[in-house]
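Listing 4. Sequential folding, example run.
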Amino acid sequence: MNRAWSLPNAADAAHYPPQACFEAGERNHHIANTAYPIAHQLTWKPYRVGPERYRSLVAQAFEGLDPLLLYVHIPFCEVRCAYCEYTVVGQDELHGTQQYLRRLHRELELYAGLLGSRRLAGFDIGGGTPSFLEPEQMAALMEKVREHFELPSEVVISTETTPRIAAARPDKLASFMQAGIRRISMGVQVIQPDLLKVLQRDGNGVEHHFRAVENIRAAGFTDFNVDLMYGFARQSLESWRATLEHALRLAPEAITLYRMRYKLTRISEQASQVALEGVRAQAELAKKLLADHGYLANPGKNTYSRIPGHPGTSDYITRRVVDGMPYLGLGLGAQSFSHTTVSYNEGAAGKNLRPYLRSVDAGELPLQDLYDLPREHMMAKMICVSFYFGEVDRSAFQAKFGLGIEQAYPEEVAFALERGLMSLTGDKLTMTELGARHFNGLVALFHAPSVKSYLLARDPEKAEDMHRHRRLALAVARRAS
């Protein structure tokens, strides 16, 4: 292994007691989660590099990394859901699908020219709503990826749909299967009618769900996941139970649960209305109900699978979570990740197409931000992602960073083990049921020191602090447009 991480600044060379960090994570449970980093304008800004270094640093960071993972972002949605934190363009840009795809194809060419052809170990097409694309557009995208990357037949390509599109356009589903896509995920989220309306999801209500599933199965998909969400301000425990029972009737191979994350959403002010105990009760209800119906997951894992020995996730997600495998993210606002760098494409802040289109037209990598990070932040990033499965693969961590997790975090690991939050299970450092209940405090133990410092100083009762990130993003968006 020959990796050169940036040197940590003073903020990332500090030390904070595990107990205090654990309590800060619990206190700030709305932001201390798997979405890392926190407050990047403070914690990552010192490691941001200028555009003059983009090409050379990307080439250096990805040198010799083969295989890779690939994520392609389709940012179009008929309606932007109120809970959405992702890079989705506005209604006035929906007409730009074809011009966006032309630039996406060009971005593939730019990376192929810089890095050469690489073998893919996983490939997801996400969004937004990837099934917004017409069949011929998806087929052309798949052809372009195969032109520039080696895509083994055993790699399970995954994409996403809404219930309404899956119910109304069986031709799209059939065409996706024909193009080589073998896994599909459908966003049900909730079924509570008044909550659907608040979330601007009422166009994807239960009237579409069973027809959608019929069409998904008729197209030949045998790897089908349903996404559900909990932790909303207006979501009762009984309405959450009804959503879970409804999802079970759809009989997918996997069910993935997402806790609502309020940062950078249009309903961020509702975060203060959600108590941690209520969220824990919803998570525990889900685990029991799903287990009773044969859907199993480790403590802390958010995807429940009814297929023995299968994690329920795509190849792209599985290799990211277990191995910390590097990935290229292409398209508006997409994130890329090497062993030493993290970058975000144009649109990650502004959420409009113009800067991305301009960069690609100029023959430039369409990067908004590129961070050359110290090992402290890259380790924290890997652990946060690993917690999607509720455990850290110790061998993968050792191979990636050149030291064991117990060496990197001696006090934190000891704290977690002594308090029964984690256990050593073979080659895994695994979350216990108690650890899953205290997920937010547990994950905060492994953040880099600058992020710990932010959590320790942050007062979650101050609404202006909760909304600061969103105001900053909106200001950037206005400047970019």
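-- end of first protein; second protein begins --
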Amino acid sequence: MDEDRSGAAGGASPAPTGDAEVESSVETWLGHIKVLAGDIGARLPTSEGEARALDYCERVLREAGLRPRTDSFVSTGSVFRPHLPAAAGFLLAFALYPVAFPLTAYAAAAMAAFFLFCEVRELTLRPNPLHALLPKRPSRNVFAVVEPSQAVRRDIVLIGHVDTQRTPLIFRSAGWMKAYRAFSVLAFASFVLQPLAYLGGAVFGWNWAWPASGAAAVSAVLLIALCLEAEASPSTMGANDNATGAGLVLTLAGELASRPLSWSRVWCLCSGCEEAVHEGAKAFFAAHRGRMPNPKAVAFEMLGCDGPAWAVKEGFVLPLSSDPGLRRLAARVAAENPELGARPAHLSGGVTEMSDAILAGVPAITLIGLTPEGTAPHWHRPSDTVDKMDPGAMARNYRFVQALLRAMDTPELEPPG
């Protein structure tokens, strides 16, 4: 890793804690957000905007005295598109079932089971066979590594994605989000029951099996409609989600370049295509996990309007939990800094790159700017613009991140969480 050293030597200097220093750091952070979400604007996965944003991140890291590197990968460019072939498959199974009973009933059961398997893989960010049917476009990650001033006791990966999402109907209001969550649970249940009903119909002659599976057919039609509507919606400018995450990574990288941690090697990662199927984070951990003997990961999401909060759990159909050890550490830091108002939170309706780290065997947590009611300000909405950023919330989040990093930077190796 010598080629990635920051060049800093000696003991680590104290992290910025004074009001003037924090204000300066927040100003730098806000400057990055203005470039990403203002000057560049929309940054859909695999788009020219995303490429320009990654160019900017690479330039900032180099100007900080670091040696940025890139990982290239390919992406579908959409989180919605991969659900279309599965939904079409559920519809095809429904149409096939009664054609030449019972042979087509067995075939429909096998078909529905296969597409259910693919959908579960998609929802849990695991490889999905249906991805082979989808066109891909190139994207990349940009990252730099800052070596510790003393010795490497652990690796800390700081992640902030640069890309933006579209503005689908399901994110327009709290009511639409509640309706979407309810639909997702009911639709998933209908997809699970479809192959079971078809198999029972073929084996036991259940007369109600095919009519009952109409729920899966209706769910599939609605899923196709929702995905197509989302694909046709315009992009958000993505100031809060997630120029704040990438901008914070850049801000911390510049500070760590001159004041590295003592015992922790820090990977400062600006990832691409999180808003597709997280291909950037997946590619990063696939390429570099083996070089991290004792890794931790901290993902930054939507930190410009509220917070600080840390994710206890994310997702709502097949949720994942953050690392228990990092949750305990975050709670300790919150107790030691009560003026920050840091709190645990649950992210319902989405997943962050914390999940990719966990699936790669890396203990992880997400720091996120959810409101006390658990909502995400301007999430995938046209209103997600630079003028909505709250310097007060950003200062609180910055202080919490700094305190958490200092708490993680100990010479002792932590026991498994």
